[in-house]
Specification:
The chain is an alpha+beta fold. It has two helices and six strands, in the order ββββαββα.
């Protein structure tokens, strides 16, 4: 089985999300049980399917670095919305930690 595919969507200066590309409704999945993100969902086998928040900081990234769920290698399609519309910019291959670092570096000017 190949790497799971996700979409990183950054609404510049507003909020961001990481969602499994095939996800239809994150509310169908249980909470991640990690008090770092506003919304965080996982499968019953503890695979991340959705992360959402209105900010990201180094302290949050340090917390998730201790959690094996965030070390899964995935493919992320990056979509930036600067207020004028969606623009798919690139693909990122790496872990959820890499994806969160990318969001931290690109979320606010």
């Amino acid at each position: 089985m190949g790497n799971r595919e996700f979409i990183i969507k950054i609404y510049k200066d507003y909020d961001w999300e990481i969602k499994l590309k095939s996800l239809s409704d994150y509310a169908l999945y249980p909470e991640l049980q990690l008090e770092v993100f506003a919304i965080a969902r996982q499968t019953s086998s503890r695979n991340i399917v959705y992360l959402f928040d209105a900010d990201i900081d180094e302290d949050s990234i340090l917390i998730v670095k201790e959690d094996d769920r965030f070390k899964e290698e995935c493919i992320f399609e990056v979509v930036l919305d600067d207020g004028s519309g969606d623009e798919s910019t690139s693909k990122l291959e790496g872990t959820f930690i890499d994806a969160l670092e990318f969001i931290k570096d690109n979320f606010k000017d």
